[in-house]
Amino acid sequence: MALARSNPSLTSNVRQLGNLEYVMKKYIASKFLIILIGCASMRNYPHDNKLQRNVAENSVTADKQSWRVCRLVYKEEGGFRPLGSAFCVVYQNQSWLVSSSHVINKYLKQVKNIYYCPNGQKEVFPLKLARNDTFCDLAMFTIDTDLVENDEIAESPNEGDELFTIGFPDHIGQSQYARIAKGNVIKLIYGGIKDNQFYQTNDSRAYPAFIASGLDPGIGASGSPVFSKEGIIVGYTKGFDDNKNAICFSGKNIIETLKQLAPISSQSK
Question: What is the distance, to the nearest Å, from the Cα of residue 150 to the centroid of all Cα atoms in its chain?
Fold first, then answer.
C-alpha cells in the first residue's frame, strides 16, 4: 500500500527491539511469511519499566513524542507475534496504554499473553486490560511506570489541520524502526464499528472520528497515536477507507474513557 511517508531523518534515534525474540507472521501475495528475529528468551519486568520522556530539548516535535509509542506482542510457542501499535498516555498520574480494540480481539481469551515493547528497549512488559470498547475500536490498558506528568489530549482536530502519526506498519518489513507519517485532516465525521466494519453516520451521538490523508494506517499500524503538528494527541488510527485515507477516532473517546476508568484504577491501588 503506497502511502506518503515522512523524511526518515525524523525517526527517533533508536527503535530497536534488541534481543527480543518474536515471530512476525503475515500474508504477502498469498504466501505465509514467517520471520524470526533475535535469539533471546522472554523476560518479564513488571515493576521496572524504563518508559520515560528522555528526549533532547532540541528534538523535532515527532521525536519528542516517539518515547510513548510501543508495539503490542503476543507470546506464543517459540517467541512473540507482533499485533499492532500502541501508545502511552498519563492521566491523573496513572500510566495507560492505548490501542485499537481490533488489534487484540482475537486474543482476549489469552490476554495475559499480550505484552508491550517500548520504542528503543529490549524488554517486553506486562499490562492489564482495563477496557475493550469494540464500538469505538478502543483498547485501554494500565501499565506500571514512574511517569507522573499528565498529558494533554485534544478532543478533536480541525478540518485541514496538519497531523503526524508514529507506528509499526507491516509494510516496512523487517525494519525495527517505527515509521513517522504526516498528513492532513480531510473531514470530521461520526461513526463506529458494527460487524467489524467502520460505519459513518450524521448522528452526533455516535463516536467522533476523522478522515486524514497521508497517514499510515496499514496492518500493524492500527492503534498508533495521531498528533497535531504541535505534538498534542488528537486521536488514534483505526484503518483506511477505499481511497487509502486513514480513518481515525478522535481524542474525545480516549478522554471520556479515562474519566470513567481513572477513579476505578485509583480505588484499586
Answer: 18
Q: Comparing C-alpha atoms, which of 123, 34, 110, 12 is closest to residue 71?
A: 123
Place of cell 498528513: 183
Which residues 6+ apart lie within 8 Å of 183 measured at CB? 4, 162, 163, 164, 165, 212, 213, 214, 215, 246
Using CA atoms, how far apart are residues 84 and 28, in angstroms rounded to an integer?
17
CA torsion 8→11→17→23, rounded to 10°?
A: -50
pLDDT range class, residue 81, cuts 50, 70, 90: confident
Please report, for the chain, the start and end positions of each structural domain, with discontinuous segments joined by +. Answer: 16-151
Distance of CA 198 to CAs 78, 103, 223, 240, 247, Å?
A: 34, 14, 15, 9, 9
pLDDT, tens digit (0-9, with 9 covering 90-100), for 202-233: 988 899 999 999 886 667 889 999 999 999 99
49: Cα separation from own chain's centroid: 18
- Alpha carbon 254 to chain centroid distance? 12
Can you give the pLDDT at residue 179? 82
Q: What is the pLDDT of residues 129-143, one digit of tens each?
A: 999 999 999 999 999
User: Which superfamily does CATH assign the domain made up of 16-151 to?
Assistant: Trypsin-like serine proteases (2.40.10.10)
As a whole-number percent, the residues of the chain with pLDDT over 70 amount to 71
The number of beta carbons lying within 10 Å of the beta carbon of residue 228 is: 20
Distance, in Å, from the CA atom of 134 to the CA atom of 131, rounded to the nearest integer, reads: 10
Kindly report the pTM of this predicted structure: 0.78
